[in-house]
Task: structure prediction
Amino acid sequence: MSKFLALLLLFSVNFAHAELKLTVFDCGHLSFPDVSAFGLSNEETSVRELIVPCYLIQHNDHLMVWDAGLPLTDVGRTGGNSRYDESFLDQLASMGISPDDVDFIAFSHMHYDHTGAANAFQQATLLIQETEAIAAFDHGADNPVFRPALYSELTNSTRRTLNGDADVFGDGSVKIISSPGHTPGHQVLYLELENFGPLILSGDLYHFEASRTLRSTPVFNTNREESLESMDKVEALIESTGATFWIQHNQELAETLNLAPAFYN
Result:
């Protein structure tokens, strides 16, 4: 079965009307005076600052976290290329939510700017592609963008190992879409929000709008050909579903969004 046919079958599920809410959090900022590492020349984009978001998905009585921001040690730190004003955990606490309340945690990938608060969620079920788990837990030291200490407490946590696309709750409302290339098991998230409509969270499929326009890939991607195939797959999904697509690191986009404690549904 082709991956595109498999994706079509995945999206043929009749949607139950789950109560689904998405909350967006500011979990830091990164600045890059030189963007050449992202496969772009400095003339191809004027953007030099990226936001680092975290997300909370409420599905009926279940809570799921998607991406966990910069390392908590960066909170309040000045200097370097990062800024992180209020930790993800403190923002959750202000909403009356503790890490132990979270049932599922999934990362678009295991780079340090997506797993900063990962260890706090060791009680949650980890949703991870098998290829990413091998890369992160067995060979994390081989990739300088992985920081195994940030997610070491998840080594023995309950794990749902994925090998491709997955319908998280079985009703079509939250789907993890396998999109390798940036890392071996990179994935994006599809949400079927009742009022907002279908939405796709990009992970690091793209970092900049120019990355999408030019189909550029960072020099630190693990597989360029897989990256391009994943771009094709996700773009086809956007077209077939009419989904809104959020490039997660897009600071300009973030400035238009309603951040926590507001939510989308």
Remarks:
- The chain is about 20% helix and 25% strand.
- Residues 224-241 form the longest helix (18 residues).
- Confidence is low (pLDDT under 50) at residues 12-16.
- The chain has one domain: 3-254.
